[in-house]
Amino acid sequence: MTFDSTVDSVTSETEIKTDTHEPSSLIDFPNGNTAKLIKVPLNATPDDFLERLGLSPPKALIIIAGGTKDFDEQLTSRMYQFFSRGIARAASDIDAMIIDGGTHAGWMAVMGESVAGRGHKTPLIGISPAGRVTYPESSETQSDQNKVPLDPNHSHFISVDTSDWGGEVNMMFRFAEHLKGSNDIPVMTVLVNGGKFSRAEVLHSVRLGSPIIVFKGSGRLADEIAKLHEEMPDFIENPEMAEIVQEGDIRLFSVESSINALERMIARQVRRDSMLKLAWNQFGVYDLNAIRHQRQFFRIQNAIIWLGVTGTALALIQSWIRCSNIFTITYPKVVMYYLVTATPIMVTILVAAANEFKSGNKWVLLRGSAETLKSEIFRCRILNKNHNIRQSSDATETGLAKKLEQMSNRLVQTEINLSALRPYKGPLPPMYATGPGDDGFSALSPEKYLTSRLEDQLSFYISKTAKLEKRSRLLGWLVFIMGGLGTMLAAFNMGMWVALTNSMGAAFGIHMKYEMLQESLTKYNQTAVALTNVRNWWLSLSVTEQAEKSNITILVENTEGILRSEFSSWVQEMQDTIAELQKEEAEEENDDKEETGKKNDGKIEIGKKNGNYSAIEKQSG
What angle do helix axes 455-491 and 517-540 make, rounded to 10 degrees? Predict the structure, then answer.
């Protein structure tokens, strides 16, 4: 935060030369406060700043920007309370660090008093140009009358080797970027009033990707940004203001709002405690438990399938032992008898478990909810960013909260109500939930939406079709091979074993049928073509047309509509498949015991299909 209210009256001074590794020094202020100061050159890297200041990495970072020039004096008392009971208290509660310009002027002095009033519980770092500030025990020169004193209530200072107001801004945000990147902490900026140097600070905040709380009604820059944000024109002449308003994560806060509201707003933003965070966490819960139930479902179904094949093999071996009389002792025959008897019983148990636990239904319901929620998250991020193109409240965070509530209420009325959903404890957003380079939280421009959502999903469907084709060919070849092997066995007078090859061929064939490989391949290709058409349409538009609100809306709604249609179709077909699977398995439960191991005209009877069923696997994109 630069000293906007006095900068016009101060002339440029000769730059002060400092050593990168100059040790820190202590400043003893007359009020009894002792602060630590380090001097750094303009090209210094901030890697060791915390160590030199004697500080530990914070859990969050708050940057104070703005000034007091032309400020309405009637708001002074209220602003003092905003800083003390709002910003300082929130920073203390969440173990945040505060950075500002560090001089004893404007809101920097107010910030110092606010932190001191709370017992200096929060590190307050002032970053200022060395040639423009003075402090006790500093070397005195004839130009000291043109300097501004450092604030006596700050705990730490970084003195940057420059004599220009605003020259320290780059260092301030390099330090902020280092803290954000090396310690993965949230960073936010608070703007009150402000002028041209504050605009540079806000622009750096936009490029840093941090949310910016703008005090609407505090004057000058803050009010200019607030007005443009609320009534965004088609063209903003100033390129810096255009980038701030169009690309920045602006959060307006009226000076007439309550102090508690400011504290909650800061805590929410710094903690990343937003609706998007809650939505991504809920997506993680749905995704985690969908994968868990999917694995349970496939384990049981695969066990049913191959136990059926095993039962056929055991029955054939038992018959072969009886016919060949190769064992003169009864022990192997007894063992084989129990194995043949136990196999259909195990199949019956697994069928009963599948029907009772309903892992397949739970998987489909949770996967459907997860993908629907992800679609709403992306809609919110782009339509809420381009706030003036909203067509309904569904695009806002409030609308996202309603969607979340609706999905939760629907799920508790299904089989999910009989299952404990395990909490998600991984990173947000969950891995593979977004495209490369997308943090999952930043507001999306149309270009970013195109790459992070449309092209990411297009890439998924293209790669998925290749995998489906490969699996379809593999299973098809296995069916043909089993058929050919059975013919060869019959030709060599080993017809008794043809039943085993037929059973294995049926297993592979049923995998093909219930994985619906051909149907899925067709739908995935259709979805990929539809997404490609939307992408090509968007890229064919001129730059001016791409900026039109109606075209942005078409891009989002068409993309999400295509994805929603494909996935809704999958959910319905999967539910029908599971219902048919459960019905046929229930019928076979009464037949497996009596059919397995029987002979008919000298051949081994095989159960209808011995539970040789699987299910279509759906992976989230």
Answer: 160
The pLDDT of 586-591, averaged and rounded, is 60
**387-419 burial by CB neighbour count: b if 16+ within 10 A, else e?**
eebeeeeebbbebbeebbeebeeebeeebbeeb
Query: Which strand ranges, in their side-by-side order, compose the sheet holding 96-100?
Result: 25-28, 34-40, 156-160, 124-129, 96-100, 60-66, 187-192, 212-216, 250-254
- The rounded distance, in Å, linking the Cα atoms of 262 and 253 is 7
424-435 pLDDT tens trace: 999 888 988 888
Beta-strand relationship, 124-129 and 156-160: parallel
Burial of 472 (0-12, 13-18, 19+ CB in 10 A): middle
d(CA 10, CA 289): 63
Whether the bond between 429 and the residue before it is cis, its omega within 30 degrees of 0, is yes
Separation between Cα atoms, residue 226 and residue 238, nearest integer Å: 15
Q: Which residue has the higher pLDDT, 481 or 581?
A: 481
Name residue, tokens 């194995």: 339
For residue 392, pLDDT over 70 is answered with no
Q: How far apart are CA 194 and CA 188, in angstroms?
A: 17
| Strands 96-100 and 133-134, sheet pairing | unpaired
Asked if residue 283 lies in contact with residue 433, where contact means CB atoms within 8 angstroms, the answer is yes
CA distance 412 to 415: 8
Please state, in angstroms and rounded to a whole number, the distance separating the CA atoms of residues 455 and 435: 9
Q: What is the pLDDT of residues 181-207, one digit of tens each?
A: 888 788 999 999 998 889 999 999 999
DSSP per-residue codes, 570-617: HHHHHHHHHHHHHHHHHHHTTTHHHHTT-EETTEE---SSTT------
Confidence of residue 22 (pLDDT cuts 50, 70, 90): low
What's the pLDDT tens digit per position in 352-364?
887 778 888 888 8
CB 352, CB 372: distance < 8 Å: no
**Cβ-contact 351, 304 below 8 angstroms:** yes
